Each structure stands twice: as C-alpha cells, then as structure tokens.
Give the backbone structure.
Amino acid sequence: MRIYKAKDYNDLSRKAANIISAQIIMKPNAVLGLATGSSPIGTYKQLIEWYKKGDLDFYEAKSINLDEYKGLGPDDAQSYYHFMHVNFFDHINIKPENTNIPNGLEEDAETECARYNSVIESSGGIDLQLLGIGCNGHIGFNEPGSAFDKETHCVTLSENTIGANARFFASRDDVPRYAYSMGIKSIMQARRILLIATGANKADALYDSICGPITPSVPASILQLHNNVTIIADEDALAKILAEHDIMPGGHLIDRRDGTDK
C-alpha cells in the first residue's frame, strides 16, 4: 500500500488522473473500474482536459462502474448512468458499447447481479479500480457488515449513506433504499486499486481502514490485503493518520511510536 498526501482537491485530482492516464497509455485497451460521487469529479475533469489536448485516447478502453441505484433508469438525473455521461463519457472518445453500469431498472436482483458478474468476467478483469470511501468506511455500496466474499449484489443502503447522498436529491425521502453494487470480492480482484479521499469527514474512515483491524465493520479495511493499492488523500482526510505516522518517500507509512512500516 502506498499513500500520497495531496495539497488540496485539485492536486488530489491531478495525481489520481496521472495514475489513470498512465494505465491508459501503457495499455490502451485497459479495463477501468470507475466510481461516482463528488470525490472523482475533479479526476474526470482532468482526464477530459488531457483527452481534449490530444494526450489521451480512450477509444480502446473499457469501463465497468461500481454501482447503480436500484429503481433509477438512465434518464433519471440522479442515476449513476447519467452522472458518468455528464461528467466523463460524453466528453471523451470511449465507445458507448464499452461502458458498463448496472441496470437499475432490472427488478430481479439475481438476474442483474449474475449479468454484471458475467460482464466483469468476460472483460478479463479490471486493470485499475478507482474508489472513493464513505464516512462509514464503505467502498462501492458495500456497507459496514458486508461479507468480504460477495460479488455483485443488491444492497440495502444504510441510514448513514442515505443521509450522505440526500444532498443530491430533492429530499432524503427521494434517495433510493437499494442499489446494485460490485461486491468486495469483485473489487479485490482488480489488478490495481486507487482510492481517493478528501475532507475531514473522511479522516476517521481512512484511519480505521489503513491503521485499524481488518473487519467487515469497516469494509475498506480489506484493502490492507491487496498487493497493489494506492491511496491519495488531502491533509484533512489524513489528519488522524498523520498524527501518528510519517509518510515516507515512495508512499510508505511509518508509525512514529515504534518505527514499524505499515
């Protein structure tokens, strides 16, 4: 695990975009696992800018999104399908048929989850998975208590997550209660994982995920077991970690209390 401190959100976004662009340059037909929410918007903006300058080409790339609200269709302004097109896909040359998002309008959860697992498998697996982190440590929509061995599944959203996402809807009551999400097993099978975090409200979750025990009560803690994880976070999100640790060149975390390498 490598951890890098960003000066601010713009710096975080550039650093994350650098890693994703390097993946595309090294492997033009890379499979990108993509995330939604406020955290990656700046990263997508930076990638779009470089594409428009001619520095990046997404024509051969494929994308597989983490999740979608159950019950929301592509035309709904709060769907993640809409989010991805407005914030990324409509501004680059990725082929529409190479973009994949769970079908929120599929009523039968077993059918949709099986279909999406097949999409991931037939793609050859995800080369780089972009993640945000929830204030309760969730990744994707894998809430605290989620089993680590799940693939795509239908999630009942926690009150914490509903409250955090209510700002995107007219009211809290309008937030869907269910979502389709890649499971933690699916995320952990990605060849590389890039997690971004910004703001003081993520400090507890980030600390528990990196420095705490590996436990389903903090879903992101499982990332400690992955062999290729990069975390980019601003100083506010890293505050609790930096109170006890130093980030060394190369992104390694050293505990100042005993000198151990995290």
